[in-house]
Design a protein that fits this description.
Layout: H1 26-38, E1 48-61, E2 64-76, E3 81-89, H2 92-105, E4 108-109, E5 121-125, E6 128-134, E7 141-142, H3 146-151, E8 159-165, H4 169-181, H5 190-197
Parallel strand pairs: 7-8
Antiparallel strand pairs: 1-2, 2-3, 3-4, 5-6, 6-8
Length: 218
């Protein structure tokens, strides 16, 4: 029998093991992972934002009602600065952003002594009355609702409070801010200044002299 021709060599080339799956986008996937790793971490925010309340408000116009959103936001740096802002927007995010800007423009500095306030204060604003008192170490923040939201972004850790009168959240928030604004540091108290300026009494070691006896008339 005549010799049969040899079988043609295989045309498929062996794929190296290290490059397996290269056509399936392996390199692209690795690139995305590298991009995520190379992203710079976001800088921490200086102020913490807390949304207290969001309301839907309406304004009557010629064609009907125009609905908008009103946001009440408090910002603070958990040290000694805090502010409250109210703003309206076409949607919730816009209202929150505007209220945050308003709050940052009206920050106040609270004198914090040993993680509490220096003295007691009671403020009446519109129909809301807020009473705040200093607390002993370990007391915590004894407050509820709006007052707790405002105090939580400050450096105060021990405090007693009571909300009296109106339940309007905006009025309570601003009354709390006014109560914190009225705080006076201990070194500026009038009683402290008077006690420091008093001079110590002078003491002498000499015994008191006896009054001279009157001479009897002869």
């Amino acid at each position: 029998m005549a010799d049969q021709p040899a079988a043609p060599a295989a045309t498929a080339h062996a794929t190296p093991q290290g490059q397996r799956g290269g056509s399936r986008g392996g390199n692209q996937r690795g690139g995305r992972r590298d991009d995520r790793r190379n992203q710079a971490p976001e800088a921490p925010k200086e102020f913490e934002e807390v949304v207290i309340n969001i309301d839907r408000v309406a304004r009557v116009v010629k064609g009907g009602r125009r609905f908008r959103f009103k946001a009440l936001v408090v910002v603070g740096n958990r040290k000694n600065k805090v502010g409250v802002g109210v703003a309206k927007g076409a949607d919730v995010q816009a209202a929150i952003a505007k209220a945050t800007d308003v709050a940052k423009k009206h920050l106040i500095t609270v004198p914090v002594v040993n993680e509490t306030i220096p003295h007691e204060a009671e403020v009446k604003l519109s129909g809301a009355r807020v009473l705040i008192k200093p607390g002993a170490p370990g007391t915590g923040i004894i407050a509820g609702g709006v007052v707790r939201s405002v105090i939580s972004v400050t450096g105060i850790r021990n405090m007693l409070s009571k909300s009296l009168g109106s339940t309007n959240k905006v009025n309570i928030a601003y009354a709390t801010i006014e109560a914190l604004r009225s705080q006076v540091p201990r070194d500026e108290w009038l009683t402290t200044d008077k006690s420091d300026k008093k001079a110590p009494a002078k003491t002498t070691d000499k015994p008191a002299e006896k009054p001279a006896a009157k001479k009897e008339a002869k």
